[in-house]
Amino acid sequence: MSHQLGRNSFGDPANAGQLMTIEEAHALLNEWVPNERLRLHMKQVAAVMKAWAIGKENADAQTALKWELAGLLHDADWEKYPEEHCRIIIEELEKRNIDPEVIHCIASHGPGYFGVEPNNTMDKMIYAFDELSGFVHAAALIRPGRYEGLEVKSVLKRLKSPAFAAQVSREDINDAISRINYSLEEIIQFIIDHQKNVN
Questions:
Q1: Please, are residues 50 and 66 in contact by the beta-carbon 8 Å criterion?
Q2: What Cα–Cα distance (Å) separates residue 8 from each residue in 3, 52, 65, 116, 164?
Q3: CB distance 20 to 69 below 8 Å
Q4: How many Å apart are CA 180 and CA 62, to the nearest integer?
């Protein structure tokens, strides 16, 4: 389902560096997203984004918070406003004068759907992590030990099975991985390591 946003510019450059606190972001989630599974997905993407910013990009606390907020809020409007997905959360963050980089990152997490190309590392990583995070979680849920002992090769095997988690776009995953300098295996391992304890 396409939700073309019809624009490529988000927020006001004058708001660079303006972020909400994690507490404020969670309050917004609790208000907008009754579905616990969807909330968990967003928390997992946030944890992986933050871990990547700190571990791979040597981000300072402010930058890591940017990455975390983008991950936490990327699907905030999906449950209540499926037809307006992304547009509503973007407008909300613009009203709150949030840093345009966070808003652009959210707008670019599905270029095929929203028509916004990922243009920096943060954008590219949310695109790579979003579908794969949900897929890895689905692969963990069907195992007795969940994440315990979950191996990259078993996730890869399930990716090759179109019937498993069929709603996850393999095309988007391949496109996202083609934009970054890391392999699919490395990204899956990173996700397993950093989202397994999120609840």
A1: no
A2: 13, 25, 23, 6, 34
A3: yes
A4: 23
- The tokens 């890895």 sit on which residue? 136
CATH code, 107 = 1.10.3210
d(CA 107, CA 5): 8
Q: Are 164 and 146 in contact (CB under 8 A)?
A: no
Domains: count for the chain? 1
Paired tokens of 78: 């999906």
* pTM of the full structure: 0.94
Name which of 76-85, 97-106, 136-145, 185-194 the model is least confident about.
76-85
9 lies in some domain: no
Token pair in block for residue 170: 């393999």
Four-CA torsion 37, 40, 46, 49, nearest 10 degrees: -80
Residue 4 resides in a domain:
no
> Which residue segment(s) compose the domain that 118 sits in?
16-195
Quote the pLDDT of residue 1: 54
If DSSP codes are grouped into helix, strand and coil, which group holds residue 188?
helix
Radius of gyration of the chain (CA): 16
